[in-house]
Amino acid sequence: MTATTDKKPRAGSGLAPELRLAVMRLRRRLAVERDPGNDLSLTAMGVLAGLHRFGDLTVGDLAVRERVKAPTMTRTVNYLVDDGYVVRRPHESDGRAVVVSLTDRGRETLLADRARRDEWLATRLRALSAEERDVLRRATPILHRLAQED
What is the spatial distance between Cα 85 and Cα 77, in angstroms, rounded to a whole number? Predict the structure, then answer.
């Protein structure tokens, strides 16, 4: 038995550490199951996902959503613009702000990456029992609530 991978939960250890560990391991595994042609960082993919879900956003709004500082987001957006994943334009009413939009290339990259990860997860889910899948189906809205901003 290894110290970190084969331990059984200790009685009374609490749900929080067990759930944190399980969610972090799943997140890391999903990060590995990326489209092989996609070399974008997870932050860059987060930008594409935010634009896909919410539409055009300012660089400031993207920085807040991704929890990074504005200069960091500006560098990420510059990279995505240079490679054709997004375009930027001046804000209509705020001359200091820049609005970022998803391009067809950005959308295609995001959707291909999601499809690959979804297929990996779907394969893993098919290996579970119907009861286990039902437990996960019922837990999904709860996990969404836990992940929401305060």
Answer: 9
What tokens does 118 get?
């979804």
pLDDT of residue 9: 53
What average pLDDT score do residues 91-104 get?
Answer: 90
Local structure of residue 10 (DSSP, 8 states): P
pLDDT of residue 8: 58
Residue from 142, 84, 133 nearest 108 by CA: 84
Residue type at 22 in one-letter notation:
A
Rg (CA), the chain: 19
| Distance in angstroms (rounded) separating the CA atoms of residues 23 and 19 | 6
| DSSP H or E segment with residue 138 | helix 130-147
Assigned token pair, 15 = 């749900």
- Between CA 110 and CA 21 the distance in angstroms is 27
Task: Say what the pTM is.
Answer: 0.80
